[in-house]
Amino acid sequence: MLEIRDVAKSYGSGSKVTHALRSISFSIAERELVCVVGPSGCGKTTLLKCIAGLLRPTRGEVLLHGEPVTAPPEEMAVVFQEYNRSLMPWSTVRNNVLLPLRHKKLSKDERTRLVEEALEAVGLTRFIDHYPWQLSGGMQQRVAIARALAYQPSILLMDEPFASVDAQTRGDLEDLVLRVRDEFGITILFVTHDIDESVYLSDRIVVLTHAPTVVKEVVRVELPSPRDQIATKELPEFATQRAYVYRLIKHDTTAPAPSTLVGEGLHD
Amino acid sequence: MRGRGHETVKVAAEIAVPIAIVVVWELWARSADSQFWPPPSKIVQEFNDLWVFEQFRSDVVPSLMRILLGFGIGSAVGVAIGVPLGMSLWARKFAMPQIEYWRAMPPPALLPISVLLLHSIGNLQKVSFIAFFCIFPVLLNTIDGIRGLDPTLVDTARAYGIPAHERIRRIVLPAAFPQISAGMRISLSLAVIIMVVAEYFSSTSGVGYVLLISKNTFQLGPMWAAIVLIGVIGYVLNLAYLLAERRMLAWHRGWRAATPQ
Q1: How many structural domains does chain A have?
Q2: pLDDT for B127-158, tens place per residue?
Q3: Global pTM?
Q4: Which candidate, B146, B174, B180, B178, places its Cα nearest to that of B77?
Q5: Structure ipTM
Q6: What range does the domain containing B214 cover?
Q7: Is the CB of residue A49 less than 8 Å away from at least one CB of chain B?
Q8: Quick one: B64 and B188 in the same domain?
């Protein structure tokens, strides 16, 4: 349903040009959960913003159902890393989730229902009239997820959403993502720097190189569903997959290949 | 217990200083017996005779109306101009030199023009004169507040396709409001100053007018009563604004307390 075709992004011009993304191509199928991982500073967030229609790529295009994305599409929702900055501190949890629904052609009852259902799905019904800053970090990110779900997207983009919550909360939120994917039947593109997280969540993992970035390899994750924080991570296959992805990235980190050689023959 | 004792001492100190000043003034004025410096007890007497409630309707109410209308209109115009300027670099390039020029203008310098332009020394002239100078603190703070808008919030609004009017109403203005409000507080005290200036130089009613007339006719009791009233108006308006702001910006205090800055 989503196709990223030869996307490149550079900043500046002339001799001062910086190539952030050199050429990225991959695609995501309906209801698939794909993680994008790569060394830090490889332009993961830039790529996500290009896909979301928030940033115009220098070259290439993003196709959603075959249509080029030039502005943020209506059937796409985004969850950002900085939950404390993407939520509005002057609005209650209810009004934060309601915000993107206000301009949709829906009845008042319909809006209320969507907001309440979304908050129920993330387990925050009790906190609907609280302010975001009255909640813990993990709960605030649940509010951001609820806002995305209430928007009824067919595809959800998540930009390192759990990078700033503690490990235990993180596990819970990962399971929440897997659950809502099944419950709401949505496609998810999940950007992370955490290899364990990417293996645990993904159907496929897109591994990126250093900047100027290309796709190093697309790895299919062969782990049984439903995933479980303990049982799945105990499997020898989990360790193998994890090590494999780790080597792909680590190799790239310790010995960055000359940029002219990287990727050309490798990318998907 | 110790904390509470400390609080009591603090409040006592706050009250003690003004009381001490008044007592010293009273004693000194009685012994000096100067017609320019009547003792506070006499000023209070004059204050009662004049304002409670002899000339309250004829002079205090007009002054208050002018302050509040001028402040309200000036603030609204400041926000209305500040929003597009805050959101557009080009608009700022065109407008900032103008704003800097007019904002640096001392209010009395424009008084003759305001009287001539409006052919009047009535309420319209007073209110528009006050409003004009109330624009600038609000305008500059609105621009600053909007420029400081968090980019993540801007991206969020764009990603969810929130239309411009909703964005301004539900994101841009609330986010800038703590700063806009700080500008409004400056404008409110400015409105009191400009009310006095405008009424002192060109008026037929108002507290500033009473100040001028009583000075010119050497009625120093009423003059002092007018001065005290102007102080009280400024103090009470500021206090009322602070209380209103505390309510409106309750979220801001909570958010700041919860977020490491």
Answers
A1: 1
A2: 999 999 999 999 999 999 999 999 999 999 99
A3: 0.84
A4: B180
A5: 0.86
A6: 35-258
A7: yes
A8: yes
